[in-house]
Amino acid sequence: xxxxxxxxxxxxxxxxxxxxxxxxxxxxxxxxxxxxxxxxxxxxxxxxxxxxxxxxxxxxxxxxxxxxxxxxxxxxxxxxxxxxxxxxxxxxxxxxxxxxxx
Length: 102
Description:
Layout: H1 6-54, H2 60-101
Helix pairs in contact: 1-2
């Protein structure tokens, strides 16, 4: 690469690094929020499970429905966490490759 192209190439690489950094930050924020929601769902699931197992009232059907809803939400959140982890790993790998090129 001619010397005159080196600064241009460095600016391009820096722009890619900046975009990857922003993307990784966004994934980290989303991961944190999703993890927090998953922990809350797990907590609520455990509480509802205790109430349902100790309840013989007629409203136990409503509780069981809510328990199913929370379990479904928890599964959705776990899937989102798995996808976020995979995306973060992909971005981290790309960032490593770009850094190696610099």
